[in-house]
Amino acid sequence: MSRIVAIGDEVEVSGFALAGVGVLPASTDGEVRTAWQELPGDVAVVILTVAAAGALAGELPVDRPLTVVLPC
């Protein structure tokens, strides 16, 4: 079964755990990049905070999971 994960500042993504979303807290650009690179193969959707999306700008390959960015 595929999973959904959220990457970003813990305060912004922690609530997603209540809906069964895997939460990968990342507060720095380096932590965001590490979380992205270490995504398990069964992840189908990644929810990013605005800051996390900025940290990954230009690095989101086409063959990776569907990625959505939370509105500001």
UniProtKB/TrEMBL annotation:
Organism name: Amycolatopsis lexingtonensis
Family note: Belongs to the V-ATPase F subunit family.
Domain of life: Bacteria
Keyword Chloroplast: no
UniProt keywords, alphabetically: Ion transport, Transport
Protein's recorded name: Vacuolar-type H+-ATPase subunit F/Vma7
